[in-house]
Design brief:
By secondary structure, this protein is α+β, with helices and mostly antiparallel strands. About 25% of the residues lie in helices and about 25% in strands. The chain has 11 helices and 19 strands. The strands form 4 sheets. Strands 11, 12, 13, 14, 15, 16, 17, 18 and 19 form a 9-stranded antiparallel sheet that branches. The chain has a 5-stranded antiparallel sheet with strand order 4-5-9-7-8.
Length: about 425
């Protein structure tokens, strides 16, 4: 049996074991014969959202080639594929995805199910690229929902939290392939972010602000820009008083930059610039915990200031914090449902007991801004509070009853935060 822990090693699954089907038919047979079962993606969630008292099902051994439809500009993939294994092939065919997360190591199905996101004022989370979803329901039947045909039901199913079934296929909208460059600036004064947050965030296709909350400055700003053919763009000598980094950087100060995607304005394909980390290296620092809260975009600066007032409590436990913007969407269980958001992300040292005591203080500071926790990361917010933040939760609960009336895919996480 493979390692029964998640990627970070902070959570050990309690499931009976992992099944590795190779076909949709095998998934249907496993599901129809199970009393409890759950999909297992790339193990990058930090909580128990993917656990089960029965078996887990991994689709990593599926051998189904991606299918590109040039006429519809779509890409159909199987449920176990990871972004890093998919994107180079897509690029060679002349297409791209609109965005990627910081890690290319995550599975497409798992990222979409948890509303995982990249960055950019005009860029919705990764699930917003989905135009159709195929999944095996509790009865073992194969269900296909599409945006064009199924409307609201589709919008409820895409960010499904693993609650509706085992996702065996996704169809994604694609765009023409493009090149990008990545520039990093250092030492951005907090006062500049407070005064010019919108202009800084709109200065590139994707923008990430990094800080360790140890001073009144953001340590790094990562700007990812599309490179037009024949462009002669020159890196400005200053970004709101921040200056260009003299060499490639890792977001966590003191770590070597080799695992990171190429910076210094060197052009390259979209899939080699949109993520922060390269597929061939261990992502991030590995030995860590992660938390993220998403707040409405209009309240971003006030929310950042609320966190900054806690810097003395946060800094001793922190590796790095990242702030990014995400566009609004219409997916029921997405934190960005009908509101553009700003994600305030924390990468912690691996000291759960200390982090567990700190999180309620951060959540209390962010409560006035209706902060929603990332579904796949660590939080201590009460179930009642989480549920109050999702206006379409009653409709999602009904969707669960329609597809899984006896709770085959339910687990402790869903019982707590969705069913209550």
């Amino acid at each position: 049996m493979k390692d029964r822990s998640n990627w970070a090693g902070n959570y050990t699954y309690s499931s009976a074991g992992v099944r590795y089907p190779r076909t949709v038919e095998e998934v249907q047979k496993i599901v129809s014969g199970a009393s409890k079962v759950k999909a297992l993606g790339s193990r990058h969630s930090f909580n128990d959202i993917a656990d089960s008292t029965g078996d887990q099902v991994s689709l990593e051994q599926f051998d189904v080639a991606p299918v590109i439809d040039p006429e519809r500009r779509t890409l159909t993939v199987h449920g176990g594929v990871k972004y890093g294994h998919l994107c180079e092939q897509l690029h060679r065919a002349g297409y791209a995805l609109h965005n990627m997360a910081s890690l290319p190591h995550i599975s497409v199905a798992g990222a979409c199910a948890t509303a995982t996101h990249g960055s950019g004022d005009a860029n919705g989370n990764l699930a917003t690229a989905v135009s159709a979803i195929e999944f095996v329901t509790a009865s073992g039947d194969l269900e296909v929902l599409s945006r064009d045909r199924d409307g609201d039901r589709f919008c409820g199913a895409v960010v499904g939290l693993g609650a509706l079934g085992i996702v065996t296929g996704l169809t994604l909208n694609v765009v023409p392939a493009f090149d990008m460059r990545q520039d990093v600036y250092e030492n951005l004064p907090f006062a500049q972010v407070e005064s010019h947050f919108d202009s800084i965030e709109s200065s590139a296709y994707s923008v990430s602000l990094f800080t360790d909350w140890r001073s009144d400055r953001f340590t790094q700003v990562w700007l990812k820009r599309i490179v037009a053919e024949g462009s002669t763009f020159e890196t400005p000598p200053e970004l709101s008083a921040a200056t260009p980094a003299p060499a490639n950087r890792h977001p966590i100060g003191g770590l070597p930059a080799e695992p990171c995607t190429v910076q210094m304005g060197v052009p390259g394909p979209w899939y080699a610039r949109l993520p922060h980390f390269r597929m061939e290296f261990t992502p991030s620092s590995g030995n860590e915990l992660q938390t993220e809260y998403l707040v409405p975009r209009p309240q971003a600066v006030q929310a950042i200031k609320a966190v900054d007032r806690m810097r003395d409590r946060i800094a001793p436990l922190l590796l790095v914090s990242e702030i990014r913007t995400i566009a609004a969407d219409d997916l029921w269980m997405s934190p960005c449902y009908r509101q553009a958001c700003v994600g305030i992300h924390f990468t912690w040292t691996k000291d759960w007991e200390a982090v567990r005591q700190l999180l309620p203080l951060i959540e209390g500071a962010l409560e006035p801004f209706d902060a929603r926790p990332h579904w796949g990361k660590l939080f201590t917010m009460s179930a009642q509070r989480v549920q109050s933040l999702y206006p379409k939760l009653p409709e999602f609960q009904q969707l669960l009853r329609d597809y899984d009336p006896h709770g085959k895919f339910r687990n402790a996480f869903l019982d707590t935060y969705v069913e209550g």
